[in-house]
Amino acid sequence: MPFQLSQFIRAIALRKSMRRLGLLLAMLSLNGCTSVPEGIKPVANFELNRYLGQWYEIARLDHSFERGLAQVTAQYTMQKDGGVNVINRGFNQEKQEWDEAQGKAYFVADESIGHLKVSFFGPFYASYVIFSLDTHGYEYAMITGPNRDYLWILARQPQLPAEVLQTLLSKATAAGFDTQKLIFVDQ
């Protein structure tokens, strides 16, 4: 009988340890969602006030949450709590209607570094890493998420000059993104 009791106690202790390990792994995986891809460096000397306003999506890697959308824009405004209100909007060509998602973003650390976390679904955040930016006029930018499956090219105007777009594509390719899979958005 004492042998069975000790096995039972060890099983409970093991179960508790497994739960703790599971919780730790879950927390680490959530933290990974706000990380920066290896080899990517967020822009320094970032000025949020200059970044606010409307941006047009020039190109993106495909994801289900934007699939089939054209005329995609992102609008960034300040929230009272110091965060950023995010409104992503695009026209669903199949349904012939506008699709809109509202979220919020906060700096991950230093406000002068272009690394934010953005949420469209409650407490779950994902990386928003600005790794290329026209620091002179804030006229175009490239953004990634926690890995190289995410890439957006944004601009203040619906079109970018061909030479600027080519420079950004070369930079994205050099950073390890598969630019052959980019979707160029109809604006």
What do these coordinates show?
This protein is α+β, with helices and mostly antiparallel strands and 187 residues long. The chain has 2 domains: 1-32; 48-184, Lipocalin, CATH 2.40.128.20. Helices cover 26% and strands 37% of the residues. The protein contains 3 helices and 9 strands; from the N terminus they run ααββββββββαβ. The protein has helices at 2-32, 48-51, 162-174, and strands at residues 53-61, 69-78, 84-92, 97-107, 115-121, 124-133, 140-144, 151-155, 182-184. An 8-stranded antiparallel barrel has the order 1-2-3-4-5-6-7-8. The longest helix has 31 residues, at 2-32. The chain is globular. The model is unreliable at 11-32 (pLDDT under 50).
Keywords:
8-stranded antiparallel barrel, globular, alpha+beta, Lipocalin, 187 residues
